[in-house]
Amino acid sequence: MSDSHFDLQQTIAQAKKGQQIAFSLLLDKYWGQVYGFQLKRTENENDAEDITVQTFSKAFDKIQTYDEKYEFGTWLVTISKNLHVDLLRKKKRNILDGKDTSKPEEVNSILDNSPTAEDALITEQNLATLLANIKKLKPHYQQVIQLRFFNEMSYAEIATELNEPINRIKVKLLRAKKLLSEIITDSK
Length: 188
What we know:
By secondary structure, this protein is mainly alpha-helical. The chain contains nine helices and no strands. It folds into two domains: 1-113, Rna Polymerase Sigma Factor, Chain: A (Orthogonal Bundle), CATH 1.10.1740; 114-188, Arc Repressor Mutant, subunit A. It comes from Croceivirga radicis.
């Protein structure tokens, strides 16, 4: 996308109004910068992609808090850096918790247990509720959720299947997950 056709402040204003195309434009413009930053930090493509998706998800959720005094790219990278630090802290905490296990036989017995009939029933009921909530989404959001989580397709495979750019698929999926989360929260 050429910068001559891209007005950042206008696009941010549109995003603050919830216009989906603005989110897509921002994602297209800044995906490479944030992903590249994370790839250098994590040295792992999957981790870099996951953190980048989380970065845009958080940024789009908090777009109202963006202050135009700062560069938008810097704001995104700061969010991304903080998410990575949080992830590292969480991993470190889990490792420390694992080393501090005073009763390893309890951990092994938990890991060896297969789901009980009650567990299967609860899972089935939760899945039925989840599917009912997914059906409340618009059809194009239902489709990306279905392809990503039930068909376990990659972003690239979904983009090919739907004949859309991969970044647009990522935005759709972010939006679909956010809307689904709101539906689930409202139904509780």
